[in-house]
Amino acid sequence: MAYDEFLADRIRHVLKQKSVFAEEKKMMGGLCFMVDDKMCFGMHIDKKTDSSLFMARVGTDQYEKALSKPHCMEMNFTGRTMKGYVFVSVEGIDSDKDLESWIQMCLDFNPLAKSSKKKS
Question: Using alpha carbons only, how large is the chain's radius of gyration in Å?
Answer without folding.
Answer: 13
